[in-house]
Design goal:
With 445 residues, the protein is an alpha/beta fold. It has four domains: 146 residues, Alpha-D-Glucose-1,6-Bisphosphate, subunit A, domain 3 (Alpha-D-Glucose-1,6-Bisphosphate, Chain A, domain 3); 82 residues, 3-Layer(aba) Sandwich (Alpha-D-Glucose-1,6-Bisphosphate, Chain A, domain 3), CATH 3.40.120; 103 residues, Alpha-D-Glucose-1,6-Bisphosphate, subunit A, domain 3 (Alpha-D-Glucose-1,6-Bisphosphate, Chain A, domain 3), CATH 3.40.120; 71 residues, Alpha-D-phosphohexomutase, C-terminal domain (TATA-Binding Protein), CATH 3.30.310. The protein contains 14 helices and 18 strands. The strands form four sheets. The protein has a six-stranded mixed β-sheet with strand order 1-5-4-2-3-6, sandwiched between helices. The protein is globular. The two termini are 32 Å apart. Belongs to the phosphohexose mutase family.
Length: 445
């Protein structure tokens, strides 16, 4: 059964347009309260934790969610602006029924969304999201007054999470002597990430740390890493760390401003683990650069591809019993450190690897020769099925014949926007670009 509202990362859209409206979000809170907390065992009242990023619409949606949960008889704890992975951690640490994050991640401020975590701090499986969607189709009611949920603030959320992040960094190491630029994307980590790296000993230059409700991800963060690279060069910093609006993505750069994406950082983390013991395997996605697969298999390390989306990476990791996985966009998972992707914790794993190796980012990744990838996004009407476009299918097959074993083609629909993404990977950049454009042009033919 297909999902009506949930995409690859919760429910997301333009604020004020269905489904991101106050009335829908209130009904969503009620439905989720019934599904996630209604069957809770024991005598304690079910409680959910709500966090958000720095978008102006977060206040409105938080109030709507709170009302919905209260009507379902669920207590609410409000964490305020917090990274998505912080809500996952705190939900698990506080033994709560569920966690909810109000965020559209890397999207501009006009968008917003809702995503859920289970009591174990993991993304909800498709089956539970389908249950919530089914509950949304039922009339909303309200428990009796004596059973209404209460709401309170979690005042020490920031401090708890800062300490958790620091606990994932080796006790025998520190960051003394390192100058780091930390770009918080004017997002949820603005008052957290700089403290983590500073308290571990680094000199921190924080940028993108002045949110005003409208500037989240604007010319800053993991989706606009040029600001980080420029600041690194301007301040003579050793490294740059760029997070996205909800701080579950990580992009880094070295002292020269050279950027390192999630594929390269995943490879570095796997190599660091391999230096101290065997690594059974790692998980990427359909978009992961072919070079990662080739490099890992040459070292006898298993590699599997999941559908795009960190939730699907996590599913394949669990199926294989592997600890490391990620996406080129910067979602990186270390299951022995956290239950979900976490930009701050991923950065700490990279920093600890560099400290142990005594090498630079460039030296630690020099054996990974990235295949050029060309990605063309084509805006389409919702529900567009590219597989029924005969000209596009024929062009895809023609390109695949030309590439042979020296590259690949991937066409997929975005899970968060009405886009078809055409990706071609080849050993030569010009070939990849022209082939991707050839396929995309057939969509409009």
């Amino acid at each position: 059964m297909s999902r009506k509202y949930f995409g690859t990362d919760g429910i997301r859209g333009l604020v004020g347009e269905a489904p991101i409206t106050p009335d829908f979000v209130m009904r969503l809170g009620y439905a989720a309260g019934k599904v996630l907390a209604g069957g809770r065992s024991g005598t304690s009242r079910p409680t959910v934790l709500i966090g958000k990023d720095t978008r102006i619409s977060g206040y409105m949606l938080e109030a709507a969610l709170e009302a919905g949960f209260s009507a379902a008889g669920v207590d609410v704890m409000l964490a305020g602006p917090m990274p998505t992975p912080a809500i996952a951690y705190l939900t698990r640490a506080l033994r709560l029924s569920a966690g909810v994050v109000i965020s559209a991640s890397h999207n501009p401020f006009q968008d917003n969304g809702i995503k859920f975590f289970s009591e174990h701090g993991t993304k909800l499986p498709d089956a539970v999201e389908l249950e919530i969607e089914a509950a949304l189709d039922q009339p909303m009611s309200c428990v009796s007054s004596e059973k209404l949920g209460r709401a309170k603030r979690l005042d020490d959320a920031n401090g708890r999470y800062v300490e958790f992040c620091k606990s994932t960094f080796p006790n025998e190491l520190d960051l003394h002597g390192m100058k780091l630029v930390v770009d918080c994307a004017h997002g949820a980590a603005y008052n957290i990430a700089p403290h983590v790296f500073h308290e571990l000993g680094a000199e921190v230059i924080a940028i993108g740390n002045k949110p005003d409700g409208f500037n989240i991800n604007l010319k800053h963060g993991a989706t606009a890493p040029a600001a980080m690279a420029e600041a690194v060069r301007a301040h003579g910093a050793d490294l740059g760390i760029a997070l996205d609006g909800d701080a579950d993505r990580l992009i880094m750069c070295d002292a020269n401003g050279r950027l390192y994406n999630g594929d390269e950082l995943l490879y570095l983390m796997v190599m660091d683990r391999l230096a101290t013991g065997p690594v059974a395997g790692a998980v990427g996605t359909l978009m992961t650069n072919m070079a990662v697969e080739v490099a890992l298999k040459e070292k006898g390390i298993g590699f599997a591809r999941a559908k795009v989306g960190d939730r699907y990476v996590l599913e394949v990791m669990k199926e294989n019993g592997w600890l490391l996985g990620g996406e080129g966009s910067g979602h990186l998972l270390c299951l022995d450190k956290h239950t979900t992707g976490d930009g701050i914790i991923s950065a700490l794993q990279v920093l600890s690897a560099l400290k142990r190796a005594g090498k630079s980012l460039a030296d630690c990744t020099k054996d990974l020769v990235i295949f050029p990838q060309a990605l063309v996004n084509v805006r389409v009407t919702p529900g567009f099925d590219w597989t029924k476009n005969a000209a596009m299918v024929a062009e895809k097959e023609a390109v695949e014949r030309e590439l042979g074993n020296s590259g690949r083609v991937l066409i997929r629909a975005s899970g968060t926007e009405p886009l078809i993404r055409v990706m071609v990977e080849a050993r030569e950049e010009d070939a990849a670009q022209s082939m991707a454009r050839r396929i995309a042009d057939k969509m409009a033919a």
